């Protein structure tokens, strides 16, 4: 029985061995055949992209910076094209020599056709620029063409300018339309939406189909590969844009796309199959100070109070990257130290800290009370002269032995006092070395070490005096040790008759008990009798300070106030574009408050800001706004040249001849790198010394791409978001492998096996 089992096991193992060697042979043969094989992308496939927004106008003549510009980039070509690989302008419809901005000649490339098969000609280019110039449909391009002479030949077009301006190169990125289309456009029709049915295109894609589903709020726009695009290297056949009307519809269908430009971070990392490609645009967010409103003495204080790192932390470190200066280079752009201390500047403007106001109010009130007291004493002396003839009974005489106070000098120097009025300002003198003053257990906040006087107000609302007897002990703290230096008391009763009875009783009792060692305080009594004078003094003090000590106590320690109690404040306008701008403005407000400057935030749309600046109706001290440098990062001309104040781009109202000259030179030519950097450094030095702007950060944008899309490469920087379509040119969905059969054979197979075995 055991022999039978052994035989079966042998057969079983033999079968397994044969199966193993057979499988191994197939595997080795397959590996050998496909060794050195090349992977090649396969043509075809569909990629879907999600976009939130309205239906596109499909009119490339209208200036756009949203999904309309992106779609125009898919459908149309321009004279030049920005290369995301080289970072330069390269030939698209034409080869252009842009070294001399005064004269640029372009030679039309051959084999260029519209999607209907007709050739792209010089006439199409000329007609496009003519309609823009005549209708002003694109104000920027139209203004750039104003002083330009255009001449054409059969295959060339030239542009002759009266001045050098690197911004002129923007016209070479303007999408070109067929002459047959633009010739029929008028001022009334040029800004209308173009038809989505019978369009003629020149780009890598054509619009092939549109379908709408209002139940889910989506419109599908299908773009197909343009077969008339000469040398069109696209691998994908279709690109479908899923256009959602709002965020809610999008989030309900967020799993049905391959690409999404997640500018507002609606998705984040919530979908594992999507890879996030982060990129930045040629832009930055900055705070611009209005030089016509904010003093040059204060500007460094404001800008130095802004901590870029804390602002970035508030906005989110994953959402932005720090930007150093307006050129987005690494050069230092820290503002200079202020020439004057902020408290000195505020004093010049009539604003003071809380402590300064407290001292001022106390000293003013003390002086006025002292003047009133002097007048009262004069009246008292006159009364005493009149009473010299009065004979006072011997038993009613009160001995003049009441002790004088040691440190209290006003409003009375007597130990025992009686009053029917509150709001009494007690003044005391302080010797050197005293670091703090205490009245009973209360430490006086208005006293600083080194002060020669202290003030303490007796006021019911302060709980520093109450009806009846009030006893006070004065302590000085020296070297951390408290020492009793004086004692005094006030009996307070608003009923004048009751007060007089108590006072008479007090002195009679004192005479009986102490043998006549208590003297009535005539100073206090006269002060009580002079209520009208006290009220007059308080009124005068209020006019001078406009604030009571209680009102001053309620003020904030950080800020500076005028005599009316109004804080020094600035108006901060910020562009209401996204949550990041709101967080930025709030953090700036917080940082300025900590530095002693109050502020009011004024959110506004970009359109309202522009209109307000151009009409000179916008009242502001600071604008927090995003700036886009476009294709020419060195061109900060619009934001700092004095000529741009009227256009609403020079947010600081900054006017300086030396800056104007350098800016004009910088934009006048396509300079060598070294010369450009030299000019930039000079500009940075001047602008930062004048403290007009604090550059904060550049926003990051996340493009989410399905991991199934191969060979998708997006650069970390783009001058314009519409160029994010460029990675689609080389992207594909599937690939095939091409076998290299040249030297394959039995001998090569044996060699392959040997190499494989000895490689381990």
Summarize the structure in words.
The protein has 20 helices and 29 strands. The strands form six sheets. Strands 2, 9, 10, 11, 12, 13, 14, 15, 24, 25, 26, 27 and 28 form a 13-stranded mixed β-sheet that branches. It has a five-stranded mixed β-sheet with strand order 17-23-22-19-20. Residues 387-401 and 510-544 have low confidence and may be disordered. It has 760 residues and is of the alpha+beta class. It folds into four domains: 2-37 and 739-758; 48-258 and 708-729, 3-Layer(aba) Sandwich (D-Maltodextrin-Binding Protein, domain 2); 281-349 and 568-699, Dipeptide-binding Protein, Domain 3 (Dipeptide-binding Protein, domain 3, Roll); 354-553, Immunoglobulins (Immunoglobulin-like, Sandwich), CATH 2.60.40. Helix 10 packs across helix 12 (522-529) and helix 10 (354-386) runs antiparallel to helix 13. Strand 22 and strand 23 form a beta hairpin.
Within the CATH hierarchy, at the fold level, what is the topology of the largest domain? Answer: D-Maltodextrin-Binding Protein, domain 2
Helix content: 25-40%
* Number of beta strands: 29
CATH H-level homologous superfamily name of the largest domain? Periplasmic binding protein-like II
* Count of distinct structural domains: 4
Structural class: alpha+beta
Kindly report the average pLDDT value. 84
Bulk shape: elongated
Beta-strand content? 15-25%
Named at the architecture level, the CATH assignment of the largest domain is 3-Layer(aba) Sandwich
Low-confidence stretches: 387-401, 510-544
Which value, in Å, is the CA radius of gyration? 43 Å
State the name of the first-level CATH class of the largest domain.
Alpha Beta
Beginning-to-end CA distance, first to last residue:
44 Å
